[in-house]
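Interim report, section 4.2 (structural modelling).
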Amino acid sequence: MVSKMIDATTTPWVQVTAPGGGTGRIKIRSSGVKVYYGDKQALKGINLDIAENSVTALIGPSGCGKSTYLRCLNRMNDTIDRCRVEGTISLDGEDIYGRTIDTVQLRARVGMVFQKPNPFPKSIFDNVAYGPRIHGLARRIEDLEEIVQRSLERAGLWSEVKSRLLDPGTGLSGGQQQRLCIARAIAVNPEVILMDEPCSALDPIATAHIEELIDELRANYTIVIVTHNMQQAARVSQKTAFFHLGDLVEFNDTAEIFTNPRDDKTQGYITGRYG
Amino acid sequence: MTDIVQSVGEFATDSPADRRGWYQSEEFRQLLRRRYASEDRFRILGIAAIVLAAVILLVLLASIVAKGYPAFVQTEVRLDVTFEESVIDPSGSRDERALSGANYQRLIRSALQDIFPDATGRRVRRQLTDLVSIGAAFQLRDMVMSDPSLIGQTRELWVLASDDIDQFLKGNIACGTEHAARLGGQPCTVPENERRVNDRQVGWVDQLIVEERIRRSFNTVLFSAGDSREPELAGILGGVVGSLYTLLVCLLMAVPVGVAAAVYLEEFAPRNRWTGLIEVNINNLAAVPSIVFGLLGLSVLLNFFGLPRSAPLVGGIVLALMTLPTVIIASRAALKAVPPSIRDAALGVGASPYQVVSHHVLPLAAPGILTGTIIGMAQALGETAPLMMVGMIAFIVDIPAGFTDSATVLPVQIYMWSDSPERAFTERTSAAIMVLLGFLIAMNAVAIYLRKRFERRW
Ligand SMILES: Nc1ncnc2c1ncn2[C@@H]1O[C@H](COP(=O)(O)OP(=O)(O)OP(=O)(O)O)[C@@H](O)[C@H]1O
Ligand SMILES: [Mg+2]
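Predicted structure of the assembly:
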């Protein structure tokens, strides 16, 4: 991990990764995204571009709409009855709320890791193999085994579970379960991985594990991560977006946000004055 | 509740010293004691309720078993029967029609006559033949039909005693001699003309006992025969088979429809006024008295669609309508209990809504659905009222061989037997209830076993 201490006056405790990385291409472009739950507006017009092969962190006080925005990106909000989405979100220039898009295909391209580890009540192997199976990624069992092994290796779990692949995934520890969920998301070979507070249920060691993992995944995947942990956002992301009450208040390079926030609210939030 | 609030309001202040004082005060201890006392009262009440329920259940079971177990044995009489050709087949043609139409009752009568040669006169001879069941003649016929070479021979046979003799020897007809008492007969206390077994018959039975021509054996008829007007020839097989056919129809209709409806309502249907209305109506249907479904079956299935009366097909459909709400409600509860995070996980890797349901949600809900289904089936197995409306209360001797044959079901047969005047049907009623309870317990055991197995898989 390339990082350096920044002796900024505002946030003396924050380590920030060097800006850069990624291809510089825009992977996801959202403009004027408004989300309503029934009559209640949760997002008030978000314009946000997410760069390819980089990590974008979404921060902001509880209830400001981070999860809501994240769930727009793979249309998980479709499963909520009273939820309505306006505006456009495009993935590689294609409107994901357009008529021609298929949600199954979209969710295969945009994977998701949830706040609480949620492995299927199946074996470790089946957990990872499920996605490739339904999407027809492996013709032969050997291919499937290879995908499972590679995904578990990438998620940093292989050495811990290789001897008990047929044990239930729910029997792993919380941190292992979360890495299993990451392996499951990687296994379908998505282009984008959405993570909603993936470390909130984990101890510092498991968290460090996953942060390292995110940094490695960045080379091949576009990652959007929601986090309440400022250090984490600073450590793993290249871009940071600060949400507040359904608005996108500030969006910039992570280094900029943490050393030189433009908006008072951002400054207040990252220095812990409110949240 | 209010007194707690008040006392805390008086005492609790922001000073820690005061708070500690309150928790050590006598008043707080009293409050604590009162809390424990109410807990104790609640526990005693709960234990009392369980004990009461257990006692009632035990008394019920004990009375049924006590009444019913004699029905599992049956009295038989040993006769030396001569298969006379002049009676069975005077023409010597061995024609099946002749063999089956012959007067076998005469063979029985003469066999009895051989034992009691001094029984003369029409009435006395009649009383003599009343000792054995009319089923004995059928027994002889079946023997001859399957083996015509018996004709001309003499065989020692155990034939069924009549139900009156059976009951007399089981002590249910209050008159017996010293010999009969050994087998369970009661001393004579009732005048002869009020008894189904008169003094002369008592004497004959006495002699049969002395000659060791009476025995008790396991009542196979009860399990292998259909219904009959003669208690000693009546069995529950017709009712059991009828119940099986009816339940099968019910299962095949209620489970797919019920589970599909539950899955649709729970997983796919939008939540709006219409689905809300449907939900309310399903819950209401569960509370509709079962006889209403019988009336529905009568007017729609029989009168409008012209389906056959008394058929398991119709009974099964009616029971399916009745159990459908149970199955739907239980299945929906089981589906609701599947954590939403599993659905999110499956959707998140790109499973289609159908795959989410069939790969993840249904397997997890299966134990609950299964339990609900079996409970519904057990309910259906015990149901009588709606089946009576569609004609399944008819007196049917034959064992049903298909879904459209006339049939009755076990609980209806129990109901009909309980209504029969013969003493012997009373104990058979209890015996049939024991069998029905056995089926219900077996079904519940299967439900528990399957649930345990399914749960272990995850
Ligand atoms: N299913 C829902 N139905 C109705 N309102 C919802 C629903 N989900 C979220 N909301 C509302 O939308 C707003 C944004 O919620 P969201 O979950 O996106 O917040 P968040 O930023 O992720 O918060 P947290 O950091 O606590 O997870 C909140 O005010 C919340 O009450
Ligand atoms: Mg959230």
